[in-house]
Design brief:
three-stranded antiparallel beta sheet; globular; 53% helix; Ribosomal Protein S8, Chain: A, domain 1; single chain; 18% strand; 2 domains; alpha+beta; 6 strands
Length: 177
């Protein structure tokens, strides 16, 4: 099984003194062989868990999409998922539109991204031509809809109100469980 990392993210996947790489290997029962020239990562399952390779690949994908190793490790939890939204679907071929849409998703001083994270409890990373999310299926559904609203041109205030409504609904459902 293989994964690919952008060259500038290889250091994050290895970590200081190889700590991150060792932790991924320990938690997934795999051995990671990184090629720092190409960014190619070979994932060998050495433990008993056949899903270990898939978990390692998912964590590496999260790191490749701009998440810190600490945030990517949230994917080791049972119900956590990674989702990636391609901004080019909304920007077309225009580089200016891509930059503008990334700016809309991040907000002034990171305000929009922070509000997205605080209201949905999902992690958000804007990196390259993508916006990636880590959270439960319910958190991802709300965060994805909010991001798509922003990329589609909705006003920030409209998206913030939407997020508040959804957060209240999610809290009500959590109380009823």
């Amino acid at each position: 099984m293989y994964a690919r990392l952008p060259k500038e993210r290889i250091g994050v996947a290895i970590g200081p003194s190889g700590e991150v790489k060792r932790e991924i290997e320990r938690r997934t029962g795999t051995r990671l062989i990184l090629d720092s020239e190409t960014g190619q990562v070979k994932i060998e399952v050495v433990g008993d868990d056949p899903l270990g390779g898939l978990n390692a690949r998912e964590v590496l994908r999260a790191i490749a999409r701009g998440f810190s190793s600490e945030r990517a490790f949230r994917l080791f939890e049972e119900d956590q998922l990674l989702e990636t939204i391609d901004i080019r679907e909304f920007a077309g071929r225009s580089e200016k539109a891509l930059v503008r849409l990334k700016g809309r998703a991040i907000g002034e001083g990171g305000k929009t991204r922070r509000i997205l994270e605080e209201t949905t409890d999902a992690y958000v990373s804007v990196y390259g031509k993508t916006i990636s999310l880590i959270g439960t299926a319910e958190q991802l559904a709300v965060a994805r809809e909010a991001v798509e609203m922003l990329l589609g041109g909705a006003k920030h205030s409209t998206v913030y109100r939407f997020l508040e409504r959804k957060r209240r609904a999610m809290k009500r459902r959590a109380v009823l469980r």
